[in-house]
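User: Here's a protein and a ligand (FE2/S2 (inorganic) cluster). What would the complex look like?
Assistant: Let me lay out the input and then the predicted complex.
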Amino acid sequence: MADTTVPTGHGHDEDSSRRDFLLTSTVVVGGAGVIAAALPFIDYMNPSADVLALASLEFDLSGVEEGQSITVMWRKKPVFIRRRTSTEIKEAEEVPLSQLKDPQPDSERVEKPEWLVMVGICTHLGCIPKGQAPGDPKGEYGGWFCPCHGSHYDTSGRIRKGPAPRNLEVPPYEFTGDTTILIG
Ligand code: FES
């Protein structure tokens, strides 16, 4: 199993990184079994890294509490999964599209309002924004902040201020259970 820890930004907090690692490790182990069942055509004589990079992955989110974020790896990219609070959902839903640089309603970015799932790579130059760990700066709009050049994302992961041109990407995914998600 590859190391699934990912940096949550520059100079991240050790305690929160360890917590993220534990959560991430747990869910990724669950996903590995799904790969074997779902992709029988992959050449298993030459497995692991290539399979993991291409496959859809399933994650169990039952241990993620409201207001908590985890980072999982999918196709070698960090994916941020946040269980949003009711306040965050309300803020995301009430923003007029006219105020958005990359206009997109929150409803088009989530399957379930409670769960925000997006690729954690800044659309400016590809840094990993801060905001996953509890003590991280979340920017002026309460979501994520990319300190490289100062891009602020809101609670829907939409770009609100700074040089990034687009919202954080939402990967293809579906819920396969109340708290089980298949990404890819
Ligand atoms: S890479 Fe995020 S602001 Fe430049």
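Summary: The chain is about 20% helix and 25% strand.
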